[in-house]
Design a protein that fits this description.
The chain is α/β, with parallel strands linked by helices. The protein has helices at residues 2-12, 65-77, 86-98, 111-126, 152-155, 166-169, 180-189, 213-223, 243-248, 274-277, 296-312, 314-330, 357-362, 365-377, 399-412; strands spanning 32-36, 39-42, 47-50, 104-108, 130-134, 172-175, 192-197, 227-231, 254-258, 268-272, 336-341, 344-349, 380-381, 390-391. Helix 3 runs parallel beside helix 11 (296-312) and helix 12 (314-330) packs parallel to helix 15 (399-412).
Length: 416
């Protein structure tokens, strides 16, 4: 039973969990037994249509057969060598085919490592110390990212984490998302190595960039010889095969990836212009290394996922599901706004517009939570936090799953 597992977990893990957002499920986290397709099955014998999908990586749904086959094939051959293997080249080729701005890439093991290393590389390349990020953007759990951070850092009231040296904090400048004037002013007055941005914010709920925000960032950063880093850990291979860069027609100097490119296994990557990437060890003097970098299991799962995506028009199918679900959400009587970009979306109650983190924080979180709990009772799992994104997968592209979701929304919409 989940209740018993939770009691035990509280004894062994801080706050009972190993990543804070998991503790946001009320009254206590349910424990998953297994997942298949669009569904997760709990230790309590319940099934839920899953719109969290491991917080984004599972764009094909749970335990996709083709990915499973490829992972098992790799397991038969061995799972860690500390020696290069063919599959890392195949995945790199596939990524740079779809994302031509990635001329060279380094595989790491999480989105956190990807952004941490991309920032270090930008500093090494420009010989400048400062970086600029946006309020509510989440770039993982390292020191330079945990300033006005979204996701669980906002959910649990620690957008600025304790434990980060003052000297580090002085190097991180924050602007409000969609505020180009702030960026222009800061870049004019300070030597900034890089601007790092989530091209669509997926860690304060979903917040799209305003028209020309990303193009404006490109122009301003070029003017001041500052690197532009697109953190595409969520948007890469989600908004389009070429990520947000293809979708919005803006090219970054460096891109960070994670989630989908590992097909549900641990992964991160950063890549970009050859001239910048060649500053990394061993060809250059900016250090990065990792025992598990480019591990063949994550490489195989990622490659298999991208192959299915190429074959099956996954982005359009997942977008169709998101359209159908948000059409029903629009009918909810309680005042709300829905932000959706392709196959990622979120609903905010009690506000008229959400275009930055400050506006997202004004939404009625308690109403969202009530709705999320109602949905769980009716067989649908939305993120347990207002500050996460709802995702759809290929496995949701099914009339019965869509109509069951719509019915669950209808039954869950009595909100006070
Ligand atoms: C945009 C973005 N960047 C970075 C990260 C960090 O990735 P990871 O959790 O794999 O460290 C996340 C999610 O956690 C993310 O959504
Ligand atoms: N918002 C985070 C990543 O995108 C959620 C994952 C986590 O913090 O466990």
């Amino acid at each position: 039973m989940s209740s018993e597992l939770w009691k035990e977990a509280l004894r062994y893990f801080p706050g009972g969990v190993n990543s804070p957002v998991r503790a946001a499920v009320k009254p206590y986290p349910f424990y998953v037994s297994y997942g298949k397709g669009a569904y997760i099955y709990t230790e309590d014998g319940n099934s839920l249509i899953d719109y969290v999908l491991g917080y984004g990586p599972l764009i094909l749904g749970h335990a996709n057969e083709y990915v499973k086959e490829k992972v098992i094939e790799q397991i038969e051959k061995g799972w860690l060598f500390g020696i290069p293997s063919r599959v890392e080249i195949e995945l790199a080729k596939k990524i740079s085919l779809h994302m031509p701005s990635i001329e060279k890439i380094r595989f790491v093991n999480s989105g956190t490592e990807a952004t941490m290393n991309a920032i270090r590389l930008a500093r090494g390349y420009t010989k400048r110390d400062k970086i600029l990020k946006f309020n509510g953007n989440y770039h993982g759990a390292h020191d330079y990212a945990l300033v006005d951070a979204g996701s669980a850092a906002s959910e649990f009231g620690v957008p600025n984490s304790e434990g980060i040296p003052e000297e580090v904090l002085k190097t991180v400048i924050v602007c409000e998302y969609n505020d180009l004037q702030c960026v222009e002013k800061k870049l004019k007055n300070e030597d900034v190595a890089a601007v790092i941005v989530e091209p669509v914010m997926g860690n304060m709920g979903v917040i799209p960039p305003e028209k020309d925000f990303l193009k404006g960032l490109r122009e301003i950063t070029s003017t001041y010889n500052t690197l532009l880093i697109f953190d595409e850990v969520i948007t890469g291979f989600r908004l389009s095969m070429g990520g947000a860069q293809e979708y919005f027609g803006v090219t970054a100097d460096l891109t960070t990836l994670g989630k989908i490119i590992g097909g549900g296994f641990p992964i991160g990557a950063f890549g970009g212009k050859r001239e910048i990437m060649d500053m990394l060890t061993p060809s250059g003097k900016v250090f990065n290394a990792g025992t598990f970098n480019a591990n063949p299991i994550s490489m195989s799962a990622g490659l298999a996922t991208l192959e299915v995506m190429e074959r099956e028009n996954v982005i359009e199918k997942t977008t169709y599901v998101a359209e159908k679900v948000t059409e029903e959400l629009e009918r909810i009587k309680y005042p709300h706004v829905i932000n959706r970009v392709k196959n990622m979306f979120q609903i905010f109650f009690g506000v008229e517009k959400v275009s930055n983190a400050t506006e997202a924080r004004r939404a009625k979180k308690e109403v969202y939570l009530q709705f999320q709990i109602n949905l769980m009772k009716n067989g649908v799992y939305f993120p347990p936090s207002q500050f996460e994104s709802v995702f759809t997968s290929l496995a949701h592209y099914d009339d019965n799953i869509i109509s069951d979701t719509i019915l669950a929304i209808k039954k869950s919409s009595e909100l006070s």
